Predict the structure of Aminopeptidase P family protein.
Amino acid sequence: MNRYEQRQQWLQAEMIQRGWSGFLVTQNVDIYYYTGSMQTGYLFIPAEGEPLYLVRRSLERAEDEAHAAVEPLGSMKTLKERLAARYPGLLEAGAAAGGLRLATELDVLPVQQFQRLQAALPGAAWEDGSLLVREQRMIKSPDEVAAIRQAASVVDASLEAVIPQIREGMAEFELMALIEHQLRLRGHQGLMRMRAYNSELITGMVAAGASAAVPTYFDGPAGGTGLHPSSPQSSGRALLQRGEPILVDIGCCIDGYLIDQTRTLVIGGLDPELQRAYEVTEQVLRATEARLQPGTISEHLYLLALDQVQEAGLSAHFMGYGADQVKFLGHGIGLEIDELPVLAKGFKYPLAPGMVIAIEPKFTFPGRGVVGIEDTYLITETGYEKLTISREGVIVI
Amino acid sequence: MNRYEQRQQWLQAEMIQRGWSGFLVTQNVDIYYYTGSMQTGYLFIPAEGEPLYLVRRSLERAEDEAHAAVEPLGSMKTLKERLAARYPGLLEAGAAAGGLRLATELDVLPVQQFQRLQAALPGAAWEDGSLLVREQRMIKSPDEVAAIRQAASVVDASLEAVIPQIREGMAEFELMALIEHQLRLRGHQGLMRMRAYNSELITGMVAAGASAAVPTYFDGPAGGTGLHPSSPQSSGRALLQRGEPILVDIGCCIDGYLIDQTRTLVIGGLDPELQRAYEVTEQVLRATEARLQPGTISEHLYLLALDQVQEAGLSAHFMGYGADQVKFLGHGIGLEIDELPVLAKGFKYPLAPGMVIAIEPKFTFPGRGVVGIEDTYLITETGYEKLTISREGVIVI
């Protein structure tokens, strides 16, 4: 059984437990996860039986790529009769059980498209299957980890290629352009997918000094002015200055999978207060690593970090400043940047082998900059493997 | 009155006509359009009175940027009482009129978030305001046109900077990396926003020869293998060959606004059949330009192109090939790539001053490549102004 069939069957077992008759997968990333193909259409996974990938375009590519039966999508008006023909008894069994219970991803599916599905399948009761999919995707298979490992190596090589080119007076966006060019030459697919509504990321957060500490709408600890209010995050037009922390929080996408890594760079050296704050972020990372093993509850890692930071007297600066602090230490990562588990209060997932988590302790100093580190880890049977490979410590240029 | 207030007031007049009490704007791009700020939260525009921008983060930046009153978003549980406090009589008037009618963007808003709004404002009847917003955004103001004009100049300068670097044997993705680098150095914000669910674009469609003719899920005439099935569009690993058409369909984002332009390049020269097909695309563009004036119905331009293409004996190759043909000639463009009006059957918008439309006649030859041209036009009082400025004709290297 290949990995796609394994994923489909895991979902089917969960659906049977919940009394769901099927899952209509609508999101491009989820369709890719279950089929290996990302063509436009819908993937129907029945609780029992073979999945059906209804494709608008490109049918030809879906047929080449997908680990599922492929048919042209056709008109939505015929969806019901086609499912009925393909799955004899499905609609009747649903009716007998008091209604056909179908799941879909209500966290990403727009209302208009959902209403079209409701009209196409009258009588179906719709369940929100998004948490189930996100929880399934939390545990990575070896092929997924291999792609993430490759992405980590691309990020490291790109960073090292750029470091010798960094100069005082270079604009933040010029540094970002250099980084992106190196990433793309090494196979970065150019996307950093996020699941949450309105969330966007352009390669990462690269900013220096005061402008890195400018808060953003982005749900992360680092900010950045961006080039304009219409993309108010990450690199702007500020020029790199000697002695200020240059935050290089970047990722890349290889075979669909993302990595997330942060390093703090400086031309010359950091002042003692920022240097000490940076060292505390490494200490927080070390202490987190010591608990990074199956069974640890995800929120505990965040609470542990809060304690350490308080002891260091840096609570006001942790993960942003003031009203713009974010309330997490790390996040799952895979096909999307904002995956489960989140290392934050209220997230009680026990860590488990196969989880991949980016951990990113950072301190924000308004007017001065952001310092910190971020590595991405695989949870193993006995502990963890660090997937990011870049050298640690403040990188002095 | 500044442009944001003008936009808000236009929407208010339309809401009064429809009997809507207010519009809860949820999408980042739409919030930017009405306020000049893109921080996280909701913008409430009442049918009468001052808009209120409820911001999660960054409040500080929203206060700096937004042309609207700003308040912290706070808990969704208090949304109703806060609106009631800010707009005395709003909820009562709605109830008296048989229910509070509120609009939001059902084309992009995910179901889960919509359900949260429904719970926060019980008793409200929700209208789909997305078409209204898209129709409003169809007519650009002078500042929007200025940004698009600037984007056109960045695309031209970047293309010209890259042309001398193009070599036989260079991989498609290397060419794309060069283009992106030039665009970013000139201020491209790195995003190509699309409104439709699951739609993504990575700078554009840059591909050559047979691989450009590989169909994609992307709703456009050009294809491309992409680097992997997890991003199955645009540049792949194919190497540029002498004599094959190199399709450079690119855009960039300046001050939030996009441009779209295609040029056909070739190392050496095209074979006569492809050269002739390219010339037909220029003829289609010229014939389209001749009708590009206020009052022309958008679908007529597509039908006119179909006639011309049929006369040229190239119908099977127009805008894709076979089952993967797309059924349009062009599209509105602005903050998003997929704006109104669409030049396609069923779109009966009369052209009007201020519309900005990308027109992209192309022919696909399976196994050989894609040829075509795309320019972006502003509709003026008397006709059109071409915003893209790159040289026409097949660009021979």
